[in-house]
Amino acid sequence: MHNHPAIPYTRETFSADDMLLRAQQFYTFMNTRRTVRDFSDKPIPEDVIETILLTASTAPSGAHKQPWTFCVIKDPAIKKAIRIAAEEEEKESYENRMSDEWLKDLAPLGTDYHKPFLEIAPYLIVMFKRVYEMEDQHKHQNYYVTESCGIACGMLLSAIHQAGLVALTHTPSPMNFLTKILNRPDNERPFLLIPVGYPADPCYVPDIQRRGIQDICVWY
Q1: Which of 47, 82, 125, 147 is deepest in the core (most CB within 10 A)?
Q2: Which CATH number is 36-198 given?
Q3: Is residue 30 within 8 Å of 161, Cβ to Cβ?
């Protein structure tokens, strides 16, 4: 036993039938989630976004360091600056960085370097991963930063879907321009850029299918 403070923890459990029903209901709900590129500019209350971020922050993290910062951008001027910088990087990627195979794989999704959603969506959420902390002019290591941030982003997307909103995981590469535009400190690195909002009317998504259980699971 360790000597650190601890508190009791309990949680409700369910019968086998109820567990299966709850799991099936949640899967059915989450299976309606889609990545969206056609956003409405309809406003969203700020407390909705804050609550979504609180849900993301419940994610587990290495040594409970919680190595993330969520930057929420609603200022039109900042969103425009981000779009200009992102499209510059994306244009270079589509024209010179991506392989023919990569471009072929992207073709069914209908994407290109134009990213109007970066200005249309009412909010942009940029997650920065905190690679270390500064305390009393000393660096303190964070652990499993990428893994921790990835889990938190998954929970963030689930919370966005639960709220009846849509999102896009946008990863212009490189993303250093976000550090500069948002004036983030040296211990943070941009991890993911997520536009959040209502879907446009009409909204279209690619006609694609998810893999079945037989393709994603191996039992031992």
Answers
A1: 82
A2: 3.40.109.10
A3: yes
